[in-house]
Design a protein that fits this description.
Helix content is 64%, strand content 12%. The chain is of the alpha/beta class. The chain has a single domain, classed as 3-Layer(aba) Sandwich (Rossmann fold), CATH 3.40.50. β4, α7 and β5 form a beta-alpha-beta unit. α1 crosses α2. It is globular.
Length: 145
């Protein structure tokens, strides 16, 4: 079982748009390729993938910010919901409040950690702070850098 955070999903879906082909661009491109390959592997192998409902909001926001307001967000979300299980906030209420007290992490990060903890899943992220917090609460993590 996998919990995919928004950074991982966006990195897998969107090729870096940086115009300058510098070290940062190539680092982003490498992370995009690794994320895309890993997401493809999870889907092909039939891994159960979860995101909290907040993840759909974050992914939508990132799509619009990165690709523009004309982006067909609904099509992307329909595709994701076909392959990824969305965990409703109500299901996470108790563990959300418990983990926020334990870690003091950012609110959005707590949602992903709560899903991973409640499902016994591995968290996949490119967010270093979330990866550190996951270790703090005993959640296995794959950090894509």
């Amino acid at each position: 079982m996998i919990v995919a955070d928004a950074s991982f999903i966006i990195d897998a879906l969107i090729v870096p748009r940086r115009r300058k082909k510098d070290d940062l661009y190539f680092k982003q491109l490498k992370r995009h390729q690794r994320s895309k390959e890993l997401l493809s592997f999870f889907l092909e192998e039939g891994f159960q993938i979860y995101v909290p409902f907040l993840g759909l909001v974050e992914i939508s926001s990132l799509l619009v910010r990165k690709l523009g307001k004309e982006t067909d967000v609904d099509t992307v979300l329909s595709f994701l919901e076909k392959y990824i299980s969305v965990v409703p906030e109500e299901e996470l209420r108790e563990i959300l409040l418990k983990l926020v007290k334990e870690t003091g992490s950012r609110a959005a990060d707590i949602y992903y950690l709560s899903v991973a903890k409640s499902k016994g899943a591995v968290l996949v992220t490119s967010d270093r702070k979330m990866a550190e917090a996951s270790k703090e609460v005993g959640v296995k993590v794959i950090l894509l850098e």
